[in-house]
Write a structure and sequence with these properties.
- By secondary structure, the protein is mainly α.
- Among the domains are: 205-324, Alpha Horseshoe (Serine Threonine Protein Phosphatase 5, Tetratricopeptide repeat), CATH 1.25.40.10; 331-465.
- It contains 22 helices and no strands.
- α13 (250-265) packs antiparallel against α14 (269-286).
- It is globular, with a radius of gyration of 23 Å.
- The two termini are 30 Å apart.
């Protein structure tokens, strides 16, 4: 219908309010002319849900997608491409709500049906691969995430005859996000800039997707310790998002959170706290219940209070973040382990060594279970335990030797697979704050962590795809 086409044009331009109005008109006409259960009405529900999702109204978007799914199944049965589109969209909403297990369930169901309906190089499969990759990335499973992203990229470049397409730009940004989550900031920056270049060519300068690129590039600079550069890119992203969404939108909250992180890194803890509080005010209006973005904000506030020497508040906010992440991600997750270490470090400052040791040991259990991707972190936790363990000298020596042996094992693996050097060593002069091994000698590294000079804190910045 005409109004749906007009709405799609507005949506492509990032003019979501006008798009929503057009979609509403299309829905009203379709219901009157075709009845409540027509396939066209389902399309209208999906279009409205797309805007609601952009606006952060996740529950309303979920309701619309479920209505569309119900209509399409009744019309076409479950083995239908339009039905899989609804399943993917519902999975996406659950992912935004932090319900990753449920999100993965919907995405895998859609992929299963699509594989039966289309060829292996169909763009629908690329869409599914990208969606699944994003969820794996959120769950900290970066190897599978990059694998799925690369599958999606291969299909897209073949279908579009090269890289110069907005859909390819989305894959570049997503791959960059996965590299960023691994601490591979140089690789992340390459892919973010590739995505920005394509988007800047095809979209107007104030399109929200351009803002997303600025925000992601800001996070890379922050991770590399270039906080002033990070703040400038955050300000660019904020300008675009305010023009597009207004003040009370989850995207604005993400940017305030990232600006706060940059300010704290610059030693401006009080200014950073103001940004985090602004972000939380927005999140309270947008998210219904617990969400990872809220947990990230709490962790960032804890960092700021720690800088201000308010250890009680720092502990309170770290524990709030830990509780949310444990419930949403499960207890065996790297982000949970990092928070446990941060809490342990606060207890060390309070000379509560028993509690600190307890937190470090829990973190160690988690990180060792994922040791292939977490060697530098495992080493750091061993060193932290060695720092405060009230044990015999021989036991202390064993702990330190274990941490050094982990490092030796990793070095040998570099010789077999040079690509791994990028993953752990970082491949750059700046040390990612969660990656322990950027060209530091083995003994120096353990000593630096033991002496408290190496930070393994988690900043909880928000990547946007």
């Amino acid at each position: 219908m005409l109004y749906n086409s007009i709405g799609s044009s507005y949506e492509a331009l990032g003019r979501y309010e006008e798009a929503f109005e057009s979609y509403q008109k299309a829905m009203s006409i379709s219901r009157k002319a075709l009845g409540q259960q027509d396939a066209q009405v389902a399309t209208c529900y999906c279009n409205l849900a797309s805007i609601l999702l952009q606006d952060g109204q996740f529950d309303e978007a979920l309701q619309c997608y479920n209505m569309a799914l119900k209509i399409r199944i009744s019309k076409f049965g479950e083995e239908n491409v339009a039905v899989t589109n609804c399943l993917c969209s519902i999975g996406t909403v659950h992912a935004r709500l932090g319900n990753y297990t449920k999100a993965l369930e919907y995405q895998n169901k859609a992929l299963e049906v699509r594989r039966r309906l289309v060829k292996e190089d169909d763009l629908l499969l690329a869409n599914s691969y990208g969606n699944i990759a994003n969820i794996y990335s959120k769950l900290g499973k970066h190897g599978p995430a990059i694998d799925y992203h690369e599958r999606a990229l291969q299909i897209k470049t073949k279908a579009y005859g090269g890289e110069d397409h907005l859909d390819v730009a989305t894959s570049f940004v997503n791959i960059g996000s996965s590299f960023f989550s691994q601490g591979r900031t140089d690789q992340a920056l390459i892919f973010f800039k590739k995505g920005q270049k394509i988007r800047s060519k095809w979209l107007h300068p104030y399109h929200p997707l351009i803002g997303t690129c600025y925000n992601n590039i800001a996070l890379v600079f922050e991770k590399q310790g270039k906080s002033e550069k990070a703040l400038k890119y955050c300000e660019k992203a904020l300008e675009i998002s305010l023009r597009t969404f207004g003040e009370e939108h989850h995207e604005i909250g993400f940017i305030y959170n990232n600006m706060g992180t940059a300010l704290v890194s610059m030693g401006k803890a009080e200014e950073g706290l103001e940004m985090f509080k602004k972000a939380l005010e927005i999140y309270a209006q947008v998210f219904d219940g617990e969400n990872l973005e809220i947990a990230n904000c709490y962790a960032n506030m804890a960092n700021a209070y720690l800088m201000l020497k308010d250890r009680k508040k720092a502990l309170d906010y770290y524990n709030e973040a830990l509780n949310i992440k444990t419930r949403l991600l499960g207890s065996v997750n790297r982000e949970v382990a990092v928070l446990l270490v941060n809490i342990g470090m606060v207890y060390v400052e309070e000379m509560n060594y028993e509690e600190a040791l307890n937190k470090y040991k829990k973190a160690l259990e988690i990180s060792v279970s994922q040791e292939k991707d977490n060697m530098p972190f495992v080493m750091a936790v061993y060193a932290k335990i060695a720092e405060i363990s009230h044990v015999k000298a021989i036991e202390m020596k064993e702990i330190r030797e274990k941490s050094e042996n982990f490092y030796d094992w990793r070095l040998k693996s570099y010789n077999k697979d040079p690509k791994q050097k990028i993953e752990v060593m970082g491949g750059n002069k700046q040390k990612p704050k969660e990656s322990m091994g950027n060209g530091v000698k083995r003994g120096d590294l353990v000593k630096k962590v033991r002496d408290g000079k190496e930070n393994i804190g988690f900043k909880g910045c928000d990547l946007r795809r």
